[in-house]
């Protein structure tokens, strides 16, 4: 095996820029730990002259990143551009075909094209590493791939998006509105300044869930439409009501095998305040793995940010330098089967439903009639009148209700003229 490795870094944004500095300042540490020398020999970004946080060597800057992937001197390429397709896919695809090891924190790319790209890596006998794609600095993927390799994992769930967790925690603590807290999160760099939608609507967490499923259950990445709900409709009022009931609201990503069928989902959940997951607050991420014989394993840490993400990218680099050439998803592509998908309509969940209604006689009975029609039984019902506005909030906590019936019930509420706006439905976990 060679003793010195040439590295290319494409994308010098929040992550790439910080990582560039890590690669420069930690090359000696890396040598001590692996016996290998590294040298950054090529870099690329959109704009050569952009002012960056760390000084970069413009002599090694390539305007066209694809030229780098054809350079025979490159051993390891780090893609940190971040698109699910386009230039990101082209860079990774060409590099792997040219027998260059690839490291990427790009969950959008891996959750969409991970099967194809891992086949390319396998065929060309190079690594495709993506530890930073899930949970930022939390070493979750390597833990599943290596430390828990012989366990039968049945369920993985957790808080996979720091932006949403920060917003929900802040709304609870400060009683401020979703939009004000979002603005604060953007000022602090916890939420995307221009388009935070992909964090808030559950897309980012679902991409991570898909990668976790493929690794945990040794299956191909699922490509069906999943249950994906974000936090955009949650109001401070909901956090205040659930607080009284001893719950918190968390956006959870959950993947599990039910009768050997895969059920992946991302949605806000009511979690008990005295549970582990109920106490992971702020920008923190946490992942809980259930398997046999290990039982339950919990990993918690910073799920985003340049420092945490670079830590995971460096662990990928050291893995390659130590000659740890492995299948990107733990086992060979031929052994990873296509997934059978669980019919989500069959799932049962207790529900929190909040409705804003006109405060007049008979309204409650129209709601309870619909509940009984869809076989949803009530565990608790709370009415909070607003005498000034002549409205009331009706909050129902149900016993376990079938998902299909819950959807039909919610649809029937939308048609009810006494209900003033689309009800809020949050599942209990
Ligand atoms: N930010 C986090 O906390 C975090 C955490 C975990 C994972 N990640 C993942 O890390 C990746 C990078 O995220 P980021 O936050 O660093 O993104 P970012 O700040 O938007 O940086 C993107 C970089 O890509 C460059 N770029 C865009 N188009 C390009 C092109 N055609 N050719 C070459 N370079 C191009 C940009 O160039 P310019 O600088 O010249 O505009 C920029 O340097 C994403 O996959 C993201 O999901 C991020």
Brief account:
This protein is of the alpha/beta class and 429 residues long. The protein has 3 domains: 4-133, NAD(P)-binding Rossmann-like Domain (Rossmann fold), CATH 3.40.50.720; 149-301, Dihydrodipicolinate Reductase, domain 2; 345-428, 2-Layer Sandwich (Alpha-Beta Plaits), CATH 3.30.70.260. The chain has helices at 14-25, 27-34, 65-69, 86-97, 107-123, 140-147, 162-174, 178-187, 197-200, 203-217, 236-244, 306-321, 363-373, 403-415; strands at residues 4-10, 37-44, 76-79, 101-103, 128-129, 152-159, 227-228, 247-258, 261-272, 284-292, 295-302, 348-349, 351-358, 378-386, 391-398, 401-402, 424-428.
CATH homologous group name of the largest domain: Dihydrodipicolinate Reductase, domain 2
Q: What average pLDDT do the residues reach?
A: 95
Portion in helices: 25-40%
Into how many domains do the coordinates divide? 3
Q: What is the tally of beta strands? A: 17
Largest sheet: 10 strands, mixed
Distance between the termini: 49 Å
Strand percentage lies at: 25-35%
Gyration radius from CA atoms, angstroms: 24 Å
- CATH architecture group name of the largest domain: 2-Layer Sandwich
* Class of secondary structure makeup: alpha/beta
What compounds are bound to the protein? NADP nicotinamide-adenine-dinucleotide phosphate
Low confidence ranges: none
The number of distinct helices, counting runs of at least 4 residues, comes to 14
Shape call: elongated
